[in-house]
Amino acid sequence: MLTKLSSIVLKCSLFGVILFSTFQAESKEVLLEAKASYLNTNGSWTGLYRIETNIQTSKNVYTWASLGYACYQNNLLFDQETFPMNVHLVPFSFGFSYLFKGESWTPYIGIGVNLTNTKCSLETKEESIKSSLWHKGPIIKLGFFLHVAENIFLDLFYDCSFNTPSSLSLIQNLKNRSYSLGAGVGFKF
């Protein structure tokens, strides 16, 4: 599991560097950040960790892409008994943000598409059930950047996503809406 997470982080970093070098020739601002948040899905809170890249496309409009990871345990009623279910989420989202630029802080609002790969495993007395599928739906982002130094910023944010499973399975028991509240630290190029 740690090897897969390391591979994802490496790929995201490479993606950010490629985007940075592509857009740097046009002297556009690029924001690269690491985020940590509390994710509320199905009434329980868990940690969600992400890497996000924002690229300026016009004066106050930025395109962004984000890749994250979260895992948690949820209790599931199955055959009139409650069993622990392990859930692993890998959300990938992208979209547009509008920044209201200020001197020491910059509020923003964004909208985009969220694609989440959800893997669940459930151990009952008789069998082991595993399920994996993609959820998709819109995501709304609210937050603000606090400018700590010339090229370093903090990001305080709230995200809300509305996901729909691509098919019915064990995962159909998960709620379609999730909230994320957290902070990030980033570097401006």
Structural write-up:
By secondary structure, the chain is mainly beta. It has a single domain, classed as Porin, CATH 2.40.160.20. Helix content is 12%, strand content 67%. The chain contains 1 helix and 9 strands, in the order αβββββββββ. The protein has an 8-stranded antiparallel β-barrel with strand order 1-2-3-4-5-6-7-9. A hairpin with a 2-residue loop joins β1 and β2. The protein is elongated and about 60 Å long. The two termini are 32 Å apart. The model has no long low-confidence stretch (mean pLDDT 83).
Number of domains: 1
CATH topology: Porin
Give the H and E element order: HEEEEEEEEE
Q: At the first level of CATH, what is the class?
A: Mainly Beta
**Sequence of strands across the biggest β-sheet:** 1-2-3-4-5-6-7-9
Largest sheet: 8 strands, antiparallel, barrel
> In terms of per-residue confidence, which ranges show pLDDT below 50 for 5 or more consecutive residues?
none
Write down the overall mean pLDDT. Answer: 83
Shape: elongated
How many helical elements?
Answer: 1
- Report strand %: over 45%
Radius of gyration: 18 Å
Helix share of residues? 10-25%
Query: Structural class given helices, strands, pairing?
Result: mainly beta
Alpha-carbon distance between the two ends: 32 Å
- The CATH architecture classification is Beta Barrel
What is the number of beta strands? 9
Topology:
Elements: H1 2-24, E1 30-41, E2 44-56, E3 61-78, E4 81-99, E5 105-123, E6 128-147, E7 152-162, E8 164-165, E9 177-188
Antiparallel strand pairs: 1-2, 1-9, 2-3, 3-4, 4-5, 5-6, 6-7, 6-8, 7-9
